[in-house]
Amino acid sequence: MKKGFVFLDEVLPGIRWDAKYATWDNFTGKPVDGYEVNRIVGTHELAAALHMAQEQAAILGYGLLLWDGYRPQRAVDRFLQWSEEPEDGRTKSKHYPNINRSEMIQKGYIATQSGHSRGSAIDLTLYRLDTGVLVPMGGDFDLMDVISHHEAKGITEAETKNRRLLRSFMESSGFNSYACEWWHYTLKNEPYPSSYFDFPIEPYVT
């Protein structure tokens, strides 16, 4: 682990996570390069801001579930490679039903250099503390479609309100939203605004 970074579950008691890119449940259809353990990493500054959002959410009965934080550059490179490979249809219906994988960069869903690799971006959603059930948001993580945009048409009023609620927690805790993805937020004052890291997310070695 690079100095200045931390496993977020170690510093955010009660946080839930599902590191999708460490699993087979992501748009590439298999674990992604650099994700060697199902845990979420971020900068200390990211963790502090998430703690503020977590506390605000808890007051209203919600918790945070994290999908991705720090992303090694090798994972970004794998995304780019995957976008140029022939279509096999395995994940298209779930993750990009209305576009071709070759369009993902142009439409803003894949970047050649991701803010995640700077260590202070986070992908997340809300769940109910009383039931543990995820809050309906009108589309799942990494659904690369206009319906994932903030204020998208075609989702229910309740789903729109839930997206706005998450956005209010995050923006009041020091994050900027991303127009194309309701789940993606970046810390306004990043500690490494020009650095793109590539250390892998590894389990502890004892």
Automatic annotation (TrEMBL):
Q: Which residues form the active site?
A: E181 (proton donor/acceptor)
Judged by the first EC level, this protein's enzyme class is hydrolase
Q: Where is this site: Transition state stabilizer?
A: R71
Catalysed reaction, written as an equation = D-alanyl-D-alanine + H2O = 2 D-alanine
Q: Which residues bind Zn(2+)?
A: H116, D123, H184
> EC number(s) of the enzyme?
3.4.13.22
* Cofactor needs: Zn(2+)
Write the record's keywords in alphabetical order, separated by commas: Cell wall biogenesis/degradation, Dipeptidase, Hydrolase, Metal-binding, Metalloprotease, Protease, Zinc
What domain of life? Answer: Bacteria
Q: How is the cofactor bound?
A: Binds 1 zinc ion per subunit.
The similarity comment for this entry is:
Belongs to the peptidase M15D family.
Give the protein's biological function. Answer: Catalyzes hydrolysis of the D-alanyl-D-alanine dipeptide.
Q: Which PANTHER family match?
A: D-ALANYL-D-ALANINE DIPEPTIDASE
Q: Which NCBIfam families match?
A: dipept_VanX
- Write down what this protein is called: D-alanyl-D-alanine dipeptidase
Q: Which organism is it from?
A: Paenibacillus medicaginis
Provide the gene name from the record.
Answer: vanX
